[in-house]
Design goal:
single chain, 72 residues, alpha+beta, two-stranded antiparallel ribbon, 2 strands, 61% helix, 14% strand, flat
């Protein structure tokens, strides 16, 4: 299952799709990500770009790991 987080209240926000995971849920990761939406409007454009690139990079790494697991 995929959880969807829209971390900005207005248009043009960063939307993060995260696989639902019991371990992450127990550690409170989803709750912590919700707080990002509360401060999103206060971030500079550079902050937003860095976060967007970081989340995009994490997604790409996860995709590569899945592909490697399929071929192993």
């Amino acid at each position: 299952m995929i959880k969807r987080f829209n971390v900005q209240r207005g248009a043009g926000g960063l939307i993060i799709f995260i696989p639902e995971d019991e371990h992450m849920k127990k550690r409170g990761v989803y709750e912590k990500l919700k707080h990002l939406g509360e401060v999103w409007d206060d971030l500079t454009e550079l902050d937003k770009k860095i976060l967007a690139d970081w989340f995009y990079g994490i997604g790409k790494v996860a995709e590569n790991i899945k592909e490697m697991q399929k071929t192993s």
